[in-house]
Amino acid sequence: MPVNWDTNCINDITNDVSHMTSLGLESNLSTAASDKIFYYHRGIKDASPASPILVLLHGYPQTQEFHVVPLLRSDIPLFIPDLPGYGRSSPLPGPHDKRSVGNTILLALTTLLPSKFRPTVILAGHDRGGRVCHRLAVDATHHPTFDIRGTVLLDIIPSLTQWTSFSTAAASVRSYHWSFLANVDLATDMIMRGGGDYYCRSNLYRWAGNRNSSTAMEKFQSHNAFDIYSNAFKYEHVVRATCDDYRAGAFEDLQEEEEDQKMGRKFDVDVMFLYSSEFLGSRYNGEEWRECMGSGKFQEFGFGDGVGHFIPEEAPENTAAAILGFYEAHE
To answer: Which structural domain, as residue segments, surrounds residue 212?
Structure first.
């Protein structure tokens, strides 16, 4: 399937590149058009089984995860991509199901690895990135290239649980975008007519906590974050690809989770679940994930003080501390 990808998105705004490189990371900005996946990285060529690579995956409607980076140990090897179709990354030529998205990201990571090296990986993902981590972690024991030791899931419940919750009117209204965005052609057209950047900003404010706190919002918007996120949504291919992400969440991803249940496929790696106590935590608890556990160990932490859906941006210090603790337990 031909891919509609306006590569002007790669160099449109580069404030984030300056910020991330100042933190000691490198980017593939100059080769992103041929690489297809845009990413930041550090320390991967020097990685070893004793120093797992930490893969950080962002959610909707965002791009690369960067708020927690300066709060992590500088010696941790990092790989921080834009999900396919988000930010500067090309959409996939086929469906954006989470197995395809995850394997595409890991394939990009292999290009940085020393030859004949089976790397150890820790995954951490928020929102849609968390769903990619979910799929890769369930598939972990069968992955031919990577030793996936565990995953951190930020502010999500299983997709199957999410869709089932829409049997109540309140849940359907609160998470309206799940069914809206899954209608790819309709949603893309409507969002573009109203302005993709406006739609992006609207959802950032809608799902954030402490919206009336100037200090909290300044932290969220630091380093031009809102400008970087919303600028990407000016591009039709980004809007369409992100909608296809949700379409896959209603079809291929849901079918995979149903198949997991039938076949008894569970997490055989360790899982940490981080959630917003007053938002997601007001409706769900870790029980939804405990039911998905196999031989892996499970732990959970709730974030209070009005923190909303965007945990890494609204509470970067606590998020980084939790991720670091999980990472160090698996070194």
So the answer is: 7-328
